[in-house]
Amino acid sequence: MRRTKADAEATRQKILCAAERMFFKKGVPNTTLEEVAKEAGVTRGAIYWHFANKTDLFLALYEAVPLPHEDMIAREIETEAFDTLAIVESATSDWLTTLAADEQRQRMLAIMLRCDYDNDMSAVLVRQREIEERHDALLELAFARALARGQMQEHWTPPSATRALRWMMMGLCTEWLLFGRRFDLVIEGREALHRLFASFRQEAAAPQNLATIGDESAPHRR
């Protein structure tokens, strides 16, 4: 009897879930398709029905779970609201909160941080770079708007601010996920981001004393 579309999709999801568990447990290079099939309770042929090889399976798994780049792109950093820096800081901070509460995202990001991208897995690295380039372009646009509006310190350029933010985010996530979660990702992560964005911000000009303004505007007495 021919499988229905729903049955095929259910099998595909079962394979993806099994792959996620095995990749997290053993690492991508050390996991075989036979092990994924056994974990999913399907035949190896069932895997090949849906995926050409392990790289294809990993790419499908990667694209099934939104990661930092996609999440941040999805936020409205291109909005016309005036405080662009506040929007980017809020979007980035909110993502840390989402990661801390979502075990599937944690597993997927940990898998990716541990993965060796040599040989066949280089296709995943290409996909990551495409997302990173698109994400960086949007962030640079946001920082350029902030700079043009006089909100950002002039010693920061849009590319340098984008790199600093990306490096901080990856550093926070890597240390938290791979080294024992020794700090509160939400509280300390938000504080670190707040300090970074404070370094981006142009300080508002201090208001002048009205009496001084009056004296300066008055004609000099002879």
Task: Summarize the structure in words.
This protein has 222 residues and is mostly helical. Helices cover 71% and strands 0% of the residues. The longest helix is centred in the middle third of the chain and has 27 residues, at 122-148. The relative contact order is 0.10.
- Kindly report the average pLDDT value: 85
* Largest sheet, strands/sense/barrel: none
Indicate the structural class: mainly alpha
Helix content: over 70%
Find the count of extended strands (DSSP E, 2+ residues): 0
Gross morphology is elongated
Summarize the model shown.
By secondary structure, the chain is mainly alpha-helical. The protein is built from 11 helices and no strands.
Q: Topology of this protein?
A:
Elements: H1 5-26, H2 33-40, H3 44-50, H4 54-64, H5 68-74, H6 84-101, H7 103-114, H8 122-148, H9 158-178, H10 185-200, H11 210-217
Helix pairs in contact: 1-2, 1-4, 1-7, 5-8, 6-10, 7-9, 8-9, 9-10
Supply database-style keywords.
222 residues; 71% helix; mainly alpha
